[in-house]
């Protein structure tokens, strides 16, 4: 895929509208979910995602393959727009349930009472995640929830790989302490 994507980027730089459309189609869901997770508002998320693509495509002639993956490049633009979004509104990010961020995984084998407990646990975990400092929450969202590689998370956050690893370690330790303070044990958190 990276070679195909590099070819699409090269064609898009030359003005190929099909290649531009292919880039948008392949990356839109990711950028939109990122914006939705940060804003909690589908309309604002759509606007941020649209602006991120407009900015990325306008700056495409300056994009260099070796500096970051295109996904990382779009993420950085979207995160900057999200920061501007909150700066303009003068408020803190809305707490978003992790379930709204990720596509739901349906477990048809669980009983209804187990499903309710599982949903409640995920909501508790989302509330605890919101208590983390911004950078710690961001590293958990990128590394744990989205599964972004250390190098990509470092580029998105503007930090070194070592700094991301240390931040992740501190965030996980803080989450563990928060779990203990709130009576959530490893087995119960794992049930969700």
From TrEMBL:
Residues 123-175 form the RNA polymerase sigma factor 70 region 4 type domain. InterPro entries: RNA_pol_sigma-70-like (IPR039425), RNA_pol_sigma-70_dom (IPR014284), RNA_pol_sigma70_ECF_CS (IPR000838), RNA_pol_sigma70_r2 (IPR007627), RNA_pol_sigma70_r4_t2 (IPR013249), RNA_pol_sigma_r2 (IPR013325), RNA_pol_sigma_r3/r4-like (IPR013324), WH-like_DNA-bd_sf (IPR036388). Keywords: DNA-binding, Sigma factor, Transcription, Transcription regulation. SUPFAM superfamilies: Sigma2 domain of RNA polymerase sigma factors (SSF88946), Sigma3 and sigma4 domains of RNA polymerase sigma factors (SSF88659). Residues 23-91 form the RNA polymerase sigma-70 region domain. It holds the Pfam family Sigma70_r4_2. One of its GO terms (biological process) is DNA-templated transcription initiation. One of its GO terms (molecular function) is DNA binding. The keyword Secreted does not apply. CDD domains: Sigma70_r4 (cd06171). This is RNA polymerase sigma factor. It comes from Sporomusa malonica. The lineage of its organism: Bacteria, Bacillati, Bacillota, Negativicutes, Selenomonadales.
């Amino acid at each position: 895929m990276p070679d195909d994507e590099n070819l699409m980027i090269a064609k898009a730089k030359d003005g190929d509208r099909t290649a531009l459309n292919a880039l948008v189609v392949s990356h839109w869901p990711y950028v939109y979910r990122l914006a939705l997770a940060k804003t909690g508002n589908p309309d604002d998320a759509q606007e941020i995602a649209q602006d991120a693509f407009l900015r990325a495509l306008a700056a495409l002639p300056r994009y260099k393959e070796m500096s970051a993956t295109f996904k990382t490049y779009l993420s950085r633009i979207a995160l900057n727009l999200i920061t501007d979004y909150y700066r303009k509104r003068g408020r803190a990010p809305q707490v978003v349930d992790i379930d709204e961020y990720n596509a739901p995984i349906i477990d048809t084998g669980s009983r209804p009472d187990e499903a309710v407990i599982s949903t409640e646990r995920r909501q508790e975990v989302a509330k605890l995640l919101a208590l983390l400092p911004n950078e710690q929450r961001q590293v958990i969202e990128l590394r744990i929830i989205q599964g972004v590689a250390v190098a990509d998370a470092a580029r998105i956050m503007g930090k070194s790989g070592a700094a991301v690893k240390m931040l992740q370690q501190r965030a996980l330790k803080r989450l563990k302490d928060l779990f203990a303070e709130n009576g959530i044990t490893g087995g119960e958190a794992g049930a969700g």
